[in-house]
Amino acid sequence: MDYKSSLIQDGNPMENLEKQLICPICLEMFTKPVVILPCQHNLCRKCANDIFQAANPYWTSRGSSVSMSGGRFRCPTCRHEVIMDRHGVYGLQRNLLVENIIDIYKQECSSRPLQKGSHPMCKEHEDEKINIYCLTCEVPTCSMCKVFGIHKACEVAPLQSVFQGQKTELNNCISMLVAGNDRVQTIITQLEDSRRVTKENSHQVKEELSQKFDTLYAILDEKKSELLQRITQEQEEKLSFIEALIQQYQEQLDKSTKLVETAIQSLDEPGGATFLLTAKQLIKSIVEASKGCQLGKTEQGFENMDFFTLDLEHIADALRAIDFGAAEDDEDDDVDTKKQKTDEDD
C-alpha cells in the first residue's frame, strides 16, 4: 500500500490517510489484527475469516481435531484468488506497519479540533443546517422547515438515525451486488471451459474423420472436405454463441463493478446530509442492477460433438452417398426391402 504518494496528492493528508485505512469488507477502519494478502491488499483478520468461511463452508475451524487441507477465496479489492493452507486466515502474515499507522492516526485524531463549516445548509433557510430527515417526503431538511416551512405537516426523524439506516441498507446492497458478481464470474469461467472443451471435441472428431477417410482417400477426398466444413460450421456457430454469452456477462460484470465503486465512494462521505442527498437513488440503482438481466446459458451437452461420427463399413459403390447418420437410413431401407420381399412371397 503506497501511503506516501497517496498523501502527497491530497491537500488534507489526515483525511486521505483515513481512506487508505478503510477495510474493503466492513468499510470501517481496519480492526487489528490486520492481515496482508499475497496480492498486497489488507483486510481485518475477522473480515478475511468471514469471507473465507463463506467461500469454504466445510473448512474445519481452528482447534478442531480433524485435519483438513486449506481453502481459497478471492481478494475483494482485485479479485485475485488467494489459496490458503490448513491454518486458513490465521496463516496469513500480519501487517504490523498498517497496525502502527492506525495507532498513530487514532492518537493524532484524538488531539485534533473538530472542523467546522462543512455541514450542508438548508436552501430555504440559508442560516439553518440540515439536521432532520422528512420521512414523508424522503428528503433531509432543517428544523425551520419543520416548524414553519413546507414540511410542517410531515413526519420527521433525527438525521443520524436515518443516516445509519440507509448506510446499513447500502452496505447490504453492496454485499448483494458483490455476491452477484462472483456468480457472474463463475459463469464466465464455466463458459470459458465450455469454449475450450468445444474446441477440443471439434478437433477430436476432425481427427477421427480424417483417419477414416485416409483409407479411401482417392474417392472420398471431395466428400471429406464437405463433411469437415460442416463440422467447422457447427463449431463456429457454437463458439460464436459462447463468445457472445461471455461478452454479455463481462459487460454485466463491468457495469456492476463500476456501480460498486461508486457506492463505496459514496460511503466515504462523512456528512450524513450530503450522503442522503444521493443515497436513495444510488440504492435504487444497485437494487435494479442486482436483479440482473436474464442472460442465456448453454444447455447440458452443448459442447458434445459426438454426432459427427461415421461408420465406414460400406461397400465401395455406396461411398459417394455417405453422410452423417446414413447407416441408420440404410438399415431402415434394408428393413423395408425385407418386409416388402416377405409380403411378395406371401
UniProtKB/TrEMBL annotation:
One Pfam assignment: zf-RING_UBOX
SMART domains given in the database record: BBOX, RING
Location within or outside the cell: Cytoplasm, Myofibril, Sarcomere, Z line
Database matches in InterPro entries: COS_domain, TRIM/RBCC, TRIM63_RING-HC, Znf-RING_euk, Znf_B-box, Znf_RING, Znf_RING/FYVE/PHD, Znf_RING_CS
Any one GO MF annotation of this record: ubiquitin protein ligase activity
Compositionally biased residues, Acidic residues: 326-335
Annotated region (Disordered), positions in chain: 326-346
UniProt name for this protein: Ring finger protein 28
Species, as recorded: Homo sapiens
Taxonomic lineage from the root: Eukaryota, Metazoa, Chordata, Craniata, Vertebrata
